[in-house]
Amino acid sequence: MNVIIEKNIPFIHGCLDDVANVSYLGADEITREAMRDADALITRTRTRCDASLLEGSRCKFIATATIGTDHIDLDYCRKNGITVANAPGCNAPAVAQYVFASIASLLNSRDARSMTIGIVGVGNVGKIVEQWSRQLGFRVLLCDPPRSESEGADGFCDFSTVLAQSDIITFHTPLTRAGKYPTYHLLDAEAAKSIERCPVIINAARGEVVDNRALVKMLDDGIVEAAVIDCWENEPDISGELLDRAVIATPHIAGYSREGKIRATRMSLDALCRHFNLAPVKLKESVPAGASASVTWDAVTESYSPQVDTASLKQNPAAFESLRNTYAYRPEVK
Fold it and tell me: Could you say which of 29, 225, 235, 321 is catalytic?
């Protein structure tokens, strides 16, 4: 069995070498030619998995060591018998850590108990953000139309309510461009008309969920107080205007905790072994399954400060990919 693994996936080197012929390649080296004789691929978000990569390949399994699958043409894979596995929830505690470390750096003397946080997307990440928000004293608004539809509207609100009533709006949705609830440019110039309280905007979801050009105008016009941006449109060629204006700006590393990366690698390996009926392979590192049950401001601020990462990106935005690929994975909140 031939397996191609994106070489920047942490903790994975050597894990499959006893059961497969493994090639470790950079994202730019995972080409159609490289995939021709591959039976499986384990990758990250920088590899676009579609017909241009997979046509003519014998690949029947793709694992992405990420939550999102918007870099994978799921329809193509389904039609061509290619099983796709992702790693839902792997980095949820780390993203929550990023969100609250960012908020802590902006609150100054303001009391969370006098503020409303709007959480858009209440899945694996959003649920932890909700839990910690309540523990820290925020009034919480939850917007998740798919969950509201399937579970009932009680406890949820619509996006316009979040825009009108929130002091902080944080996005935790997947990126979808079609279907009943598309999230592409969910926050755009039209949505900005419903904003009333000059909120802080946090995007640690997917870059295209927020219209970056429209957000620059919201900041310039004083509609939005501040922007915390980890996920950008057109990565790694990010908006210089938004980079200049964002108070916290990081190179898509919100989920880059050591524990989160171990979980993602473990989930990818387990999925591959199940698919090919292999015995589970060993991973030297192990971590607890979930996030800290409770959190304090002190625990958050002691665990991570986004200011160093912000300074690095603002100093050298052209290094976006290298900053991401060489990131020193931080520990999660304990």
Answer: 235
Catalytic residue (choose from 44, 147, 252, 263): 252
- The pTM score is 0.89
Catalytic residue among 206, 263, 324, 330: 206
Q: CB of 266 within 8 A of CB of 88?
A: no
Q: In the predicted model, what is the mean pLDDT of residues 18-43?
A: 97
For the chain, the average pLDDT equals 95
> Both tokens of residue 20?
């497969």
CB 241 within 8 A of CB 214: no
CB of 268 within 8 A of CB of 85?
Answer: yes
Q: Give φ, ψ of 282 to 5 degrees.
A: -85, 140
Instruction: Name the DSSP letter for residue 309.
Output: H
For the question of residue 235 being annotated catalytic, the response is: yes
- Of 235, 195, 238, residue with least CA distance to 218: 195
| Among candidate residues 14, 11, 12, 44, the one with its CA nearest the CA of residue 26 | 44
Q: Is 275 a catalytic residue?
A: no
Per-residue model confidence as pLDDT tens digits over 48-104: 999 999 999 999 999 999 988 989 999 999 999 999 999 999 999 999 999 999 999
**Closest Cα partner for 210 from 242, 244, 237?**
242
4-8 CB contacts, 8 Å cutoff, 24+ apart: 4/30, 4/34, 4/35, 4/38, 4/40, 4/41, 4/42, 4/43, 5/41, 5/42, 5/43, 6/30, 6/42, 6/43, 6/44, 6/46, 6/47, 6/65, 8/44, 8/325
Instruction: Determine whether 151 is an active site residue.
Output: no
Amino acid letter for position 265? T
